[in-house]
Amino acid sequence: MGFANSVLPEGSGKSPAPGRLTSVYSEVQTNRLHHPLPLPSVLRGPFKLLDGPPSSAAGNPDEIAKLFPNMFGQPSAKLVPTGSVPTGLPQGLRIGVVLSGGQAPGGHNVISGIFDYLQERAQRSTVYGFKGGPAGIMKCKYVELTPDFIYPYRNQGGFDMICSGRDKIETPEQFKQAEETAMKLDLDGLLVIGGDDSNTNACLLAENFRQKNMKTRVIGCPKTIDGDLKCKEVPASFGFDTACKIYSEMIGNVMTDARSTGKYYHFVRLMGRAASHITLECALQTHSNIAIIGEEVAAKKETLKNVTDYITDIICKRAKLGYNYGVILIPEGLIDFIPEVQQLIAELNEILAHDVVDKEGLWKKKLQQQSQLLFEFLPQAIQEQLLLERDPHGNVQVAKIETEKMLISMVETELEKRKSEGTYVGHFKGQSHFFGYEGRCGLPTNFDATYCYALGYAAGALLHSGKTGLISSVGNLSAPIDEWTVGGTALTSLMDVERRHGKFKPVIKKAMVELEGAPFRKFASMRDEWALNNRYISPGPIQFIGPGSNNVNHTLLLELGAQA
Amino acid sequence: MGFANSVLPEGSGKSPAPGRLTSVYSEVQTNRLHHPLPLPSVLRGPFKLLDGPPSSAAGNPDEIAKLFPNMFGQPSAKLVPTGSVPTGLPQGLRIGVVLSGGQAPGGHNVISGIFDYLQERAQRSTVYGFKGGPAGIMKCKYVELTPDFIYPYRNQGGFDMICSGRDKIETPEQFKQAEETAMKLDLDGLLVIGGDDSNTNACLLAENFRQKNMKTRVIGCPKTIDGDLKCKEVPASFGFDTACKIYSEMIGNVMTDARSTGKYYHFVRLMGRAASHITLECALQTHSNIAIIGEEVAAKKETLKNVTDYITDIICKRAKLGYNYGVILIPEGLIDFIPEVQQLIAELNEILAHDVVDKEGLWKKKLQQQSQLLFEFLPQAIQEQLLLERDPHGNVQVAKIETEKMLISMVETELEKRKSEGTYVGHFKGQSHFFGYEGRCGLPTNFDATYCYALGYAAGALLHSGKTGLISSVGNLSAPIDEWTVGGTALTSLMDVERRHGKFKPVIKKAMVELEGAPFRKFASMRDEWALNNRYISPGPIQFIGPGSNNVNHTLLLELGAQA
User: Fold this and answer.
1) Which domain of life does the protein's organism represent (chains A, B) (predicted)?
2) How many CB pairs under 8 A join A and B?
């Protein structure tokens, strides 16, 4: 019955990973090493690539064409089974991989996937892991990956095999450094595992290498727990599934606590600064009483007062039903979605840069009337935070505002008011939570583990076939793994331009929660029911074997038209 | 691959629980309903009770004897197998159960256990669930438990079957109310599921009923996630195992994140106001770089500066090794263990009650020198919190201090100092976490589920045999379930007295972390290694089937002399 921790995972005898060498594996971690990673059937036999029609861009195709003269218009590629093993494909490839940006469960499996592809289909290949993100490419800091090095990371969370970083390859000098590294290592290909920015960067690299007549191809891979990098051909970014299930486990526990105790309102802030996919998914998994979706707040041009009133109204209705408890989910980026808050912040930055904040508050008269009202509406602690805490550029630090605590305070004030007016009889105690780091590095779910392995394996196939400027795409994800489709999508086809400093900059548009999409519509159709009648679900801890262990998240299923 | 949520758990057709009726079950929850609950072999066949020698008390036996003239000296009872089914035991018992105090995973299974015992061994029995804790007894608010009512709660987290409460039965009037309820329902017995206070209360009730010549017997059951209700015969309180595993899952994830990112120190505050068992267990499960054990801080009479320096020293050493990240565990009750903080709080309460806090800070001169120094040492935010936030009695709200944030701030200041002195070269970013509510209501582990079921079943056997004033005790827990021992321990044998308001009050002493005990010694022998060399373990999410699913926590195994 004791814990059977392994000091070193099996198979790591010869050249174990320096990070994991000092690590001890739990029984679950060890077991995950042996978890099989089935491939879609098309990746199991001989296959060839079929090109589709020429692609365009998500917006402003003319500008994208100018920015990517070599990449623009590339067709998407699809892998299809073929009768015989294709001949003439090169062997002994030299491939680099890099992890870019924040951690997401499954990153290690993408690397395992491309590594195994090369081992099996392009013998005598070499894989270099660039260390610490794109900076590793620029500084030519890398480690040569071997089966023994990679093995201990199979199906394990984190990015610590080669670590990640947030640098970008942007300036001509930085591109030059990347070229030098590619030449020095004689790279045939590079796999960039990252989010929207990193994949845009991957495409710029691909364009640059091609322009310089270099042989180095670049393929991207969709990573982000926020779930905001996706499109028709790339139905999901990896890590979202695991992160949402970890958060939902915690929310489920807190819900059961709320119902048992009967006296707390839990305000749970969840990751997702730009988009509210995580909040939406967690609401669908747990049936929280309230979930605020930033995209809806923005679309309806709601004010902070509107949001406060919405929450307060439900609390009052619940009190009438005898429920003085509940669970409320809030996306971390909520206040970025509220126009009036953005306006206030802009005015504050201006005032704080030039004026003295006098104790008498005369400075407030410099605020426009709407901003003045909003400022007065904010809890005192938040007012002080806005005035005192600035970033190195002297700007107000919006990201530091603990939205869940701010809302608790505002709801409290509003409830006091209603109590004195006699429209609320109940008791309110708010508890705040922030679930963030806890979900980025968990052991990947079976779905993320398999999906990532297929993404990496597909990236190997694309590079092997000489493709560049594509993002690895695995589709038909609601079907059994066998039937998953595999291919590559032109990165330029996901792009639009933004005007920055008088220039057009290419961007992969973040996929926001669509108010007309199936996940939001499902949520919208249920939320009144969930608000008043406690239809809580406790998903429980992620299971790796047995019931529920192969479930896919609701967002993906609903988007794919399946019944979640 | 879709989620297969059941709208109503099976078997809840006739008289489903009102709480769970409005609930939807996740696949894991549904599956847990069917998880088998094996009984120790002694509970599976015919058994009889063997009484041991007369017992004494944990301290001041003379006073305990005076307080409990009927209960004191009772022998512990042990269940032993017997050849034939004992005859003459009453049937048709009328038994009440009550959940008292904070939630702990497994409470529902205790109720399932006693219910099943009575169904199987005392036919035509009735079980009443008192609602909302001891208040339910006093107000005679109850629900009659039926198989259909109970079924949906089997192996489920929370206390929502009958809910809990923190009231105590203390005054003569309250005892009178309890008597009236017992008479009204014609109760043969009462099972009190609670922590140290609740079990003390259970014994007082047992004494009172006996004194009044009432037939109602009272049995206690050891519950608390904090793990501070235990002794030789009661080796564990239920809920500790599940809670620690949930916290350790999160800590493991945060560790992997720390190692991947390489730039954060995560300060994790964990539940446990009186004792640091949870922090110790989580350190043993995860090998965090630092864990502060309150009992050691108290024993060594450490100051806040000592604790800060201990952490800062390790951070400096790690920086020299190239590690600017780490994970630090802190028990929620830390500052209660630091004598100088207690002194400062006492002085502040005195000063704030009588004096004006002038802006110039002249009031500080009223503090004793040591307290003045400590106050100045505290981060400004904490200083303000101490002065501004008071409870309804005007006292400083120590419980509201976010210890982890306070420590981050103090470590930061100390590191700045060392940086300017040239003794620290590195970068420090603190991230704070509090894991509390997330662990109290999780789905019970296999261990807690089985242990609780046995505790409840044993309580049924004790009441059926006419026992009173005992706590249900199940032992030999590191052996296979089959070999677990079952019995009851005299509650008075766990008691000592405390002097309060000039009177002796009986208390079950909280079991603190013993610095000479095996769990702490193991931790102490490893901590220097864990501090500098990252030997992180990520336990992963609790698994209900497969590898590791039947593991028991380290604390229990080490205390039982097994190798964890």
Assistant:
1) Eukaryota
2) 241
